[in-house]
Every structure is written in structure tokens, then in C-alpha cells.
């Protein structure tokens, strides 16, 4: 769902070979996970959560990459889960998550491919965490417009 910010079930179903990660991602799962943890912590993510996501990435990189069919299924399941939880706001939640993923990928360019390669781009917990960060950023902008201090994150 989040991969590249534009890959959707139709792209995956067409057999897009987007599941091939840059060789550096698969070469050393521990190094890739550590780089992600460092980036997340530097971006203000709680260090415990940064370590948690780094661990998930490391484990996922040690498994075979998801196939196009698996990505399409994961995308559909993520959309359904978001719709069940958020109803009419599900599309907006997905948009916020993709927006945050794209923002974070400015400093960590491999993030979209990493989310795709690991299948975590379709993980509801990851989607919600990214959407929450984007939402908090929007709230901080509104607070600033009204002269209010930004909330501690």
C-alpha cells in the first residue's frame, strides 16, 4: 500500500517486478535494520519503536521477498482493514501514510523499496504509525497558525 507511494494492487497484479530491492538492502539485513533505526530515531521516533521496526525489517529481509500476488493480496487486506477501522476516512489515512513515507524517504531514499521488499508497506501498524506522524505534523502547523506552541512528540 505504501510502496513507492504509488504501487497499488493493480500494479502488483500486473506482475510488476518492484519486489526486487536494491542489493544493499538484502546484502546485510542487520546493517539495513540498524540504518533504519538510526534514521527513525533521528526523525524523532521513540527509540524503542525505532528498534522495534528495525527488528521487524531485519526479520523480514531474512525471508524471501513477497511475490506480486502476495503484495496484491496484502494491499487488498490493508485497504479492507483500514476501511473497517476508519470507514470513510480510510482513504485519507492511506494518503497521510503515503505522504509521511515520501517525506521520510527524502532522508532515507531506500525506504519505499524497503517497505515493498519486506511487505511492511501493507502492514496496518506501519500505515497507522506513518499516518499519525503526518497528522501530528498538520496539527503542529495549525497550532503555529494560531500562535500556539507545538505539542511535544
- Structural class based on helices, strands and sheet pairing: mainly alpha
Report how far the terminal alpha carbons are from each other: 26 Å
Number of helices: 8
- The number of E-state strands comes to 0
Q: Indicate the proportion of strand residues.
A: under 5%
What is the C-alpha radius of gyration, as a whole number of Å? 16 Å
Shape: globular
What integer is the average pLDDT? Answer: 86
Largest beta-sheet details: none
Give the low-confidence spans: 4-21
The amount of helix comes to: 55-70%
Give the topology string: H per helix, E per strand.
HHHHHHHH
Region (Disordered): 1-27
Describe this structure in words.
The protein is mainly α. The protein has a domain of 92 residues. Helices cover 68% and strands 0% of the residues. It is built from eight helices and no strands. About 12% of the residues have low confidence.
Write the layout of secondary structure elements.
Layout: H1 9-13, H2 23-27, H3 29-42, H4 47-61, H5 68-86, H6 90-105, H7 111-118, H8 124-145
Question: Quick recap of the structure?
Answer:
The chain is an all-alpha fold and about 150 residues long.
Structure keywords:
153 residues; mainly alpha; 8 helices
